[in-house]
């Protein structure tokens, strides 16, 4: 937990803390129709089950169906909260799910699915220590009774023990002092502890060498150097069998050292941090990538100190206790980047780089985090709608957008259209068509003013709800026409225009037109609404022309 002003949100935020199946069912109904990973948690926040879904809404709703299995019902009955994280596709959801399962070892994942675990090598603390393979238990703990090394994947750990380390160091698997040599002794894998053929002191020296090999790094280098010296001595004394045995052992350990160097210098351990500000608060989500796989997601929410950059406040506090990777990828470069890098490098005792990715998979991960932040901020709102509110500095989420366009091909059939979008999607029951009553000839500005005035004069007269955002097709001229109509009606609804040539957004609040990146989800919502309004008005214009020709 972090102290104020940071609020740790790795457990579900207050808005989605649940007690009882009925409330959980309501939460599931709020899940988006997007791929992702979800977590059922107990009353104390412990993950009970982590799963993935191609469609979170459909999957989570299925848990509350009448034909749900008994194990599922039992898990639901013990759950007190539900949360999810969206991904770009199902494959990413699978990777994230596996990483989270391996970190938390939820009780019902072990019961409900075969969850792959990592394998560790345990050197026991017995009088004559053994080397055994162990796995984490349900609580994510390694069995006690010695020192563990790892983790390794199951296959590599078995190969490492059976083919290399056991042959080199001849660590026992048999019962000590049983009175006669075991099979492993005759195979050359045991020094004869079972038959009392080696002293405890001599055996413990072999165990220490094994620990040096498993520790890796400089200790492994020192071990190899000492073995090389012993090999040269054995060769000079013409003990060639021993020299060959040492040579083969050195080659195997050198291969292990090179692998460790490669892994430690690789791209595996990195953090990805995205920040978004909303209504005076900073929202941060973070992915921790370990060994090239996303293992964890964390969420934070705090009120930034006035005058200081939120990310610059967050990074020192989050990494103050250590655990700093070599590279930290962020959504925006902090102004104090050099100072932060120096501070974090001093704690890590190694170089730390803060990077804003421009393209590729790393950029996609930052975008994915932003998508999750926006989804959480907006509740059931599409993340693009939350982004649109941020880009246009709107007072509320633009859940309802009404877009206007006019058409007067060659001055004939002067018509207009209005389309309505709810949560970023067309609401065709809210579409309206207009024939000009006052405008004659080809006058786009006057036509735009007329249809905007008529639409909102009617809503105002009937006392009906106004939209959250008005969008008009065109540039500054069309926008001024719409604003003139709203001013006459004494209405203060946010209103912008979108000009097609350069996709520029005109707003009375901007000194210059705003250009969003072509990949911007907010821009795509405006384009969708603008293009739909254009399609609707053209189809109406063609319909009137066809009727006129038939007369």
Q: Can you characterise this structure?
A:
With 551 residues, the protein is an alpha+beta fold. It is 43% helix and 21% strand. It has 17 helices and 20 strands. It has helices at residues 21-29, 56-62, 70-77, 90-104, 107-112, 154-169, 183-187, 200-215, 217-236, 240-264, 310-319, 337-348, 360-377, 383-392, 444-462, 476-488, 521-550; strands at 6-8, 36-41, 47-53, 81-86, 119-124, 131-135, 146-152, 270-278, 281-290, 293-302, 327-330, 353-355, 400-407, 415-422, 425-426, 432-435, 469-473, 495-499, 504-506, 514-515. Strands 13, 14, 15, 16, 17, 18, 19 and 20 form an 8-stranded mixed beta sheet that branches. It has a 6-stranded mixed beta sheet with strand order 1-10-9-8-11-12, sandwiched between helices. The chain has a 3-stranded antiparallel beta sheet with strand order 3-2-4. Strand 5 and strand 6 (131-135) form a beta hairpin. It is elongated and about 110 Å long. Mean pLDDT is 80; it is low at 1-19, 111-117, 153-158 and 259-267.
């Amino acid at each position: 937990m972090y102290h104020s002003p940071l609020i740790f949100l790795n457990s579900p935020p207050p808005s989605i803390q649940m007690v009882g199946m009925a409330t959980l069912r309501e939460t599931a109904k709020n899940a988006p129709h997007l791929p992702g990973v979800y977590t059922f948690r107990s009353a104390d926040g412990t993950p009970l089950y982590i799963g993935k879904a191609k469609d979170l809404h459909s999957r989570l709703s299925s848990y509350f169906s009448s034909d749900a299995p008994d194990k599922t019902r039992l898990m639901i009955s013990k759950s007190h909260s539900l949360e999810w994280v969206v991904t770009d596709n199902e494959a990413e959801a699978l990777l994230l799910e596996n990483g989270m399962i391996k970190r938390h070892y939820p009780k019902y994942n072990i019961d409900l699915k075969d969850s792959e675990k990592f394998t560790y090598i345990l050197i026991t603390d017995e009088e004559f220590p053994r080397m055994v393979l162990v796995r984490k238990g349900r609580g994510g703990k390694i069995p006690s009774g010695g020192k563990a090394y790892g983790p390794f994947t199951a296959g590599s750990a078995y190969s490492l023990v059976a083919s290399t380390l056991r042959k080199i160091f001849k660590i026992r698997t048999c019962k000590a002092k049983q009175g006669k040599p075991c099979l492993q002794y005759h195979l050359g894998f045991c020094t004869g502890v079972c038959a009392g053929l080696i002293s405890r002191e001599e055996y413990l020296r072999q165990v220490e060498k094994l620990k040096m090999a498993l520790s890796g790094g400089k200790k492994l280098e020192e071990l190899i150097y000492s073995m090389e010296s012993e090999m040269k001595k054995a060769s000079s004394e013409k003990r060639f069998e021993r020299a060959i045995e040492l040579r083969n052992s050195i080659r195997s350990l050198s291969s292990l050292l090179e692998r460790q160097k490669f892994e430690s210098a690789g791209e595996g351990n990195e953090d990805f941090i995205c920040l978004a500000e909303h209504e005076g608060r900073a929202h941060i989500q973070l992915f921790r990538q370990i060994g090239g796989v996303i293992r964890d997601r964390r969420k934070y929410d705090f009120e930034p100190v006035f005058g200081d950059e939120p990310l610059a406040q967050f990074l020192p506090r989050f990494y103050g206790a250590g655990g700093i990777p070599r590279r930290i990828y962020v959504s925006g470069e902090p102004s104090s980047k050099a100072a932060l890098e120096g501070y974090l490098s001093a704690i890590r005792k190694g170089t730390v780089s803060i990077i804003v990715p421009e393209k590729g998979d790393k950029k996609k991960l930052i975008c994915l985090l932003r998508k999750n932040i926006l989804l959480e901020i907006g509740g059931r709102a599409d993340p693009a709608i939350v982004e649109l509110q941020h880009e246009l500095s709107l007072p509320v989420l633009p859940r309802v957008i009404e877009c206007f366009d006019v058409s007067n091909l060659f001055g004939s059939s002067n018509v207009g259209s209005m389309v309505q979008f709810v949560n970023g999607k067309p609401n065709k029951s809210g579409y309206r068509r207009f024939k000009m009553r006052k405008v004659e000839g080809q006058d786009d500005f006057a036509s735009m003013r007329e249809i905007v005035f008529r639409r909102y004069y009617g809503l105002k007269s009937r006392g009906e709800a106004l939209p959250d955002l008005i969008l008009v097709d065109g540039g500054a001229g069309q926008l001024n026409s719409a604003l003139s109509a709203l001013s006459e009606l004494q209405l203060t609804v946010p209103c912008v225009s979108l000009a097609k040539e350069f996709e520029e957004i005109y707003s009375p609040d901007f000194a210059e037109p705003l250009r969003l990146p072509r990949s911007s989800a907010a821009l795509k919502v405006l384009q969708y609404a603008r293009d739909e309004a254009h399609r609707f008005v053209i189809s109406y214009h063609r319909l009137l022309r066809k009727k006129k020709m038939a007369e």
